[in-house]
Amino acid sequence: MKPLNTSWWPKLTTLSLALSLAMNAGLAHADERESLEALRQTTLGLINALVDKGVLSRDAADAMLKQAQAKQSAPAQAAAATPATPTADAKPVQRIPYVSDAMKAQIRNEVKEEVLTQARAERWGVPNASPAWVDRIKVDGDFRFRYQADHAGNSNTPAYNYLASEDLNDGIIRSADFASYLAGNSGVATGSTTDNRNRERIRLRLGITAKVSDEVGVGVRLATGSTTDRVSTNQTLGQGFNKYPLLVDRAFVRLTPVEGVDVLAGRFPNPWFSTDMVWSENLNFEGLATTARWEQPEATFVPFATVGAFPLREESPPTRGGRWLYGAQAGASWVPAERTRLKFGLAYYQYKNLAGRQDQDYTVSGSTFSPGATYGQYEYAAGLRQKGNTLFETNPASPSNLAPVWGLAYQFKPLVLTASAEFTHFSPYSLLLSTEFVKNTAFDAADFKRRSGLNVEPGGKDKGYQLKAAFGAAEVRDPGQWQAAVSYRYLGSDAVLDAFNDSDLGLGGTNVQGYTLGVTYGLYRNTNLGLRYLSSRTIDSPINDQFEPNARYRVNSVQVDLNVRF
């Protein structure tokens, strides 16, 4: 038998009182005896139903019935103990408690409403009713099938030039992966800058969120992709019908200790108000983040603030320490008019222990190379970077047949201003505008020379901006809805870290300028078809501004997407 639910005692007391009143009222009003008897039987039936469902024990039910009977007999005993008041003709007067029709109706309605509310909450009598905990679980996801065609520019600098430049460019480069070569053959590059590529790709994301309580929630999401690409969840088809991995994309807990404050811990969605120029829309963060919103009823101006700390590499001796990303953002949402919504935010980010340094933990004796315990600790690894950031060789004195270890030329402390606006004056259509500007406040050539030991100018740019406009449905959800969008981006080589920003324009990274045209059309409910054209080219030489200033890399892409949400 289930334990007694103590939350039912107030309701059962009310039912007992109703039963007692029904019995007393029956003594006073014989003409209403039939209707009150029906109410009495209904109340008794309800108590028996609670016993059958295990909400109330049989002993407790019997106790409630005895309590009702006691309340019924109390007025009669009191009347018997009180001497009757004789009338003028010496006949005794019997006083009987009276319950008005209004009071009986009020009691009847209150009991009915409480019982119905509890019945709806616990789904009494609902066929195949699911347990109450199911209401606290939400499952959602999306699937995308994409055809992507990437057309390389005819005037692109061949990959061999990147490879040949290693010994001539003072160890500076911005597209290191074009300069890597096949193992055992230093004359053949692994990258390609002139070949076109056509791919079919899928993306599947499946998320579960659970509301543990009003203060605690948990989220988990699985997604396709790979463990070496953190800014894409695409899975390219054509693997000989092989199966695809489904990875943990999110796993976090959300705490709301007070209203308006959310604390995220684990691996969670992007907590910043931003565009994909700085943070890819597919990127999830690991660590801790807290967001506070000061929202008042009917307020048109709502300020917010977010702070976060995210480990990039654990602190594991004998390396010089862990790598971290810290961030803080302040902003506000503002509704200055009925059909106008604005939002803006100013963010400051700082990377710790990420910039490269000259690595001297190795020895060279003739053709023998002997690395030390901390060798390679300053590397900006291929599995992390995309392309665009200015890099240098951290091991310049190593043998020529040894692959270079690339490190970041600059530190990164970007200051980012983001703003968006939504105008709904054209209902049912909306005009959506957004812009973002970034400047790397740690861009310092003198600091690079101290860390690298090189007396060269690394070059590069420290600023970037993006403009975007969209018109149509704010979100394409229903059949017949549409949205058209255009954006332009100019992102200097060292304005932001190239590891975490958009992977589509220019096939990812920084040192890129170009535009995107797109249109999305709703086919069915939660099903739409999208078409995008992306055109981009490099800003500075992707090799070296001094050694080969005219080097270039250009790529145009077409993406056709079938998106389904569920």
Give a brief description.
With 566 residues, the protein is an alpha+beta fold.
Give an overview of the whole structure.
It is a single chain. The chain has 566 residues and is α+β, with helices and mostly antiparallel strands. It is 18% helix and 37% strand. It has six helices and 24 strands. The strands form four sheets. A 16-stranded antiparallel beta barrel has the order 3-5-6-8-9-10-11-12-13-18-19-20-21-22-23-24. It has a three-stranded antiparallel β-sheet with strand order 4-16-17, with no helix packed on it. Strands 1-2 form a two-stranded antiparallel sheet. Helix 1 packs antiparallel against helix 2 and helix 1 (9-28) runs parallel beside helix 3. The longest helix is centred in the N-terminal third of the chain and has 24 residues, at 58-81. It is elongated and about 125 Å long. Residues 1-6 and 25-29 have low confidence and may be disordered.
User: What is the count of structural domains?
Assistant: 2
Mean pLDDT: 85
Work out the radius of gyration.
Answer: 36 Å
Could you give the count of β-strands?
24
State the helicity in percent bands: 10-25%
SS content category: alpha+beta
Q: Please tell me the CATH architecture of the largest domain by its name.
A: Beta Barrel
CATH topology tier name of the largest domain:
Porin
Helix and strand element order: HHHEEHEHEEEEEEEEEEEEEEEEHEEEEE
Overall shape: it is elongated
Strand content: 35-45%
Distance between the termini: 39 Å
